[in-house]
Design goal:
Layout lengths: L44 E6 L9 E5 L8 E7 L4 E8 L14 E7 L20 E8 L4 E8 L6 E7 L6 E6 L4 E4 L2 E2 L11 E9 L7 E13 L8 H9 L1
């Protein structure tokens, strides 16, 4: 019996299965395969969403300031045959907001591994300890500021944030080292908290906020991928290039 090694390098992997089939009538009868082991090769990048991986539409939900009696509205959709996430909405200050520095409005979309689409079971947490940075690849921006936020079970009250400004009508990429993520609570930077723990990432969110009164109104963002890696050079990723060229 020949011994062979087959290598699979998926963008994101939840389940491994082995299937024997007739190949539409090409083979029948008994079969036998002996597996020595199943292992995953380490890569310098991993697409969490998009960039060749599924966006898992059912795992995303909208969270906006209406949960705090606000007036902002966020919406999520998927375009280009499901390969691009579309995040749109309107930021609106509350009528009784006074001091501009206290005006708060936000809309966000969240993918939480602790909740299935039916909110009845959890998926494994992301263990990103093999990587040192995370990148948001924007297919088309609107010139506004957004933030990428990561939540861990090590400290579930703290969001680790990365702010970035998009280019109006253009593609852009935004990368941050894990060590440079800013710990925040209720939108404000905090200290004396746990540092970011890449082994227990439970939720990832994208947020558009008023930045304490600096902007409001409509926003629209097309996101082609969220990728973790080591010294990423996304210009070489064919799975992103087609998006940036066509949209």
């Amino acid at each position: 019996m020949d011994k062979s090694v087959y290598t699979l390098t998926p963008a994101n992997l939840d389940t491994i299965s082995f299937v024997a089939s007739s190949m539409f009538g090409q083979q029948l009868g008994t079969f036998r395969v002996t597996l020595d082991s199943v292992s995953l090769a380490r890569s310098d990048r991993l697409a969490l969403f998009g960039a060749g991986a599924s966006w898992r539409p059912g795992s995303w939900r909208v969270v906006d300031d209406r949960v705090q009696v606000g007036r902002s509205v966020g919406e999520i959709g998927f375009v280009e045959k499901g390969r691009v996430l579309k995040f749109t909405g309107v930021l609106k200050f509350r009528e009784n907001d006074g001091n501009p520095s206290e005006k708060r409005a936000y809309a966000s979309i969240v993918s939480d591994r602790r909740l299935s689409p039916q909110k009845s079971a959890s998926a494994p947490l992301w263990n990103l300890s093999a990587y040192s940075q995370i990148t948001v690849s924007i297919a088309k921006g609107d010139g506004k500021w957004y933030s990428l936020n990561l939540l861990t079970t090590t400290d579930p009250t703290t969001q680790h944030r990365f702010h970035f400004q998009t280019k109006d009508g253009s593609a852009s990429t935004h990368t941050v080292q894990f060590s440079d993520l800013v710990p925040t609570r209720q939108g404000k930077r905090v200290s004396n908290v746990h540092s970011f723990d890449p082994t227990t990432v439970a939720a990832i969110s994208l947020k558009c906020s008023s930045l304490f009164g600096k902007h409001n109104g409509a926003f629209a963002l097309l996101v082609s991928g969220i990728i973790v890696g080591i010294d990423l050079d996304l210009s070489e990723m064919d799975s992103l290039a087609w998006v940036h060229n066509e949209l």
